[in-house]
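My hope is that you will study the record closing this message with an eye to the fold:
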Amino acid sequence: MKLITAIIRTTQLDQIREALVLNDITRITVCRVSGHGRQKNREEIYRGKKVVPNLSPKIKLEIAVNDDFVDLTVNTIIKAAKSTKGYETDEVGTIGDGKIFITPIEECIRIRTDERGSAAI
């Protein structure tokens, strides 16, 4: 079992979610987060003054999967996150497209049924 955490652009959420659903990956958790990566700072106007925000709004996806679904999930996210023109294009990504982290899950327990391990995911 693995936990796949993806930090993506806010504009890519619907596209990535639809791509995941098409690949039968339907159980995800979505959080709004802020962060700073390698993308260049942009100026914004706030109350009539120019400001350079330190943190950019992003979306964090968390998806717990069994080992058989890790590659499918990661490849789906990469393909959908890179492209701004559609899921089926093979575009080269740009700075700010996001990151994916894969961490092992020691145990998963479904509270309702007390199922454990892969069956609980």
In short: The two ends are 8 Å apart (CA to CA). The chain has one domain: 2-39+55-120. The domain at 2-39+55-120 is CATH 3.30.70.120 (Alpha-Beta Plaits). Strands lie at 2-8, 29-35, 44-46, 49-51, 56-65, 98-104.
